[in-house]
Design goal:
CATH superfamily: 2-C-methyl-D-erythritol 2,4-cyclodiphosphate synthase
Order of helices and strands: EEEEHHHEHEHE
Distance between the termini: 9 Å
Strand content: 25-35%
Helix content: 25-40%
Largest sheet: 5 strands, mixed
CATH class: Alpha Beta
Number of strands: 7
CATH topology: 60s Ribosomal Protein L30, Chain: A
Length: 162
């Protein structure tokens, strides 16, 4: 078997006047994540994990933050395009696992199943192939001070035999 592991990480600061989008879901919050797209750091971390496992450049290479085409774009569209890119390289997704790092609020537990379903749909895989956890940073650094939200993701891809 030709198996590949990928790792992704992303962080976006919280800012007033922005939607809070995580895992493709709008979450009620007094601030949102700041970025060129919808700033969905969870989806961006997953994109980078998938791209890395396939041996491709990172998300910024394919969707540059200075390209107006991607301003305020739904990151689920980026994830669908990344899934197509890795398929063109001969890879399929075995599973994705991720962790969101944020102080409460927001509590994402009530949105977990909907995020999993949304992410799975965007990648064309079953919800059972998507893991999602949340943790805090115990008051340490920008995430701990409620200034930012971060996400980590790992994935396993299966490819054609070399």
């Amino acid at each position: 078997m030709n198996l590949r592991v990928g790792h992704g990480y992303d962080l976006h600061v919280l800012a007033e006047g922005r939607r809070f989008v995580l895992g493709g879901i709008d979450i009620p919050h007094d601030r949102g994540l700041l970025g060129h797209s919808d700033a969905d750091c969870l989806t961006h971390a997953i994109c980078d994990a998938l791209l890395g496992a396939a041996g491709l450049p990172d998300i910024g290479h394919f969707f540059p933050p200075n390209d107006e085409t991607f301003r305020d774009i739904d990151s689920q569209e980026l994830l669908r395009q990344v899934t197509t890119l890795i398929a063109e390289e001969g890879f399929s997704i075995v599973n994705v696992d991720s962790t969101v790092v944020a102080e409460a609020p927001p509590r994402i537990g009530q949105f977990r199943e909907k995020m999993i379903a949304t992410l799975a749909r965007s990648m064309g895989i079953a919800p059972g192939q998507v893991g999602l956890k949340a943790t805090t940073n115990e008051g340490v650094d920008a995430t701990g001070r409620r200034e930012a939200v971060a996400a980590y993701a790992v994935c396993l891809l299966q490819g054609k035999q070399a």
